Amino acid sequence: MCIAGGRIQELRGTGRLTTGVMTPASPTNEVRAHEHLFFEGDARDHIYIVESGWVKLYRTLIDGQRQIVGFANGGSVLGVEADTLHLNSCEAITDVTMRSIPASRLNGICRSDPALAEQVLRQIGRQLGAAQAQLATIGAQSAEQKLATFLLTIADLCEESLDREFDLPMRRGDMAEFLGLRLETVSRKMTEFQRRGWIKLTSLYHCRLLQRHVLEHLAQGGEADGAQMLQTG
Question: Could you say which DSSP state residue 28 is in?
Answer without folding.
Answer: E
